[in-house]
Amino acid sequence: MTIWFYGNQDGINTDMLFPGKYTYTCATADEIKPHLLEDLDPNFAQSVQKDDLIFAGKNFGCGSSREQPVLGLKSVGIQAVIAKSFARIFYRAAINQGLLLIESPEAVDAYSPGKPVSIDFINGRITVGEDTFGFPTLPEEVTAIREAGGLLEYTRKFLDSRLKNT
């Protein structure tokens, strides 16, 4: 697991996560992936792996309401984004895609390169080095959406189960 640390940068916006110039030419996850964070961290798209973590500062994901940044991060397998705070629209888009966001300013401040990090999603704890910080556990509905792989899959499964019971 690699930890991508941008904790000293506030206001990482959606254009930094996925440049707006590709909005109308990249729609699928495979088209989005090569451009993820290209203006923030040119090594990210080529090096990111499943279960990596991102640490970031305040107001992560501010900017436009485009879905590509969230879809891209989810499709490369980012385990979670831990930030000091998130933009509201980005937060909602993350729920829709099943991307886990954890707001923990203390964990971001405690992290430095090389420190081990572990996350207990069930009990709402993140350990950075020797320090453990709590975070609110996800509501049952949000957990179900995340486990289903996003809102679309959750809705599909829900409707399929309803149709089978009629």
Q: How would you describe the overall organization of this protein?
A:
- There is one protein chain.
- The chain is of the alpha/beta class and 166 residues long.
- The chain has a single domain (3-164), classed as Aconitase, domain 4.
- The protein contains eight helices and seven strands, in the order βαααβαβαβαβββαα.
- It has a four-stranded parallel β-sheet with strand order 1-2-3-4.
- Strand 6 and strand 7 (131-134) form a beta hairpin.
- Helix 7 packs across helix 8 (151-164).
- The radius of gyration is 16 Å and the shape is globular.
- The model has no long low-confidence stretch (mean pLDDT 92).
Order of SSEs: EHHHEHEHEHEEEHH
Q: Quickly count the domains.
A: 1
Instruction: Outline the biggest β-sheet.
Output: 4 strands, parallel
Helix content: 25-40%
Task: Describe, in short, the structure shown.
The protein is α/β, with parallel strands linked by helices.
Describe the SSE topology:
Layout: E1 3-6, H1 14-17, H2 29-32, H3 44-47, E2 53-56, H4 68-75, E3 80-83, H5 88-97, E4 101-103, H6 105-110, E5 117-120, E6 125-128, E7 131-134, H7 140-148, H8 151-164
Parallel strand pairs: 1-2, 2-3, 3-4
Antiparallel strand pairs: 5-6, 6-7
Keywords, please?
7 strands; globular; 16% strand; three-stranded antiparallel β-sheet; 166 residues; 36% helix; Aconitase, domain 4; alpha/beta; 8 helices; four-stranded parallel β-sheet
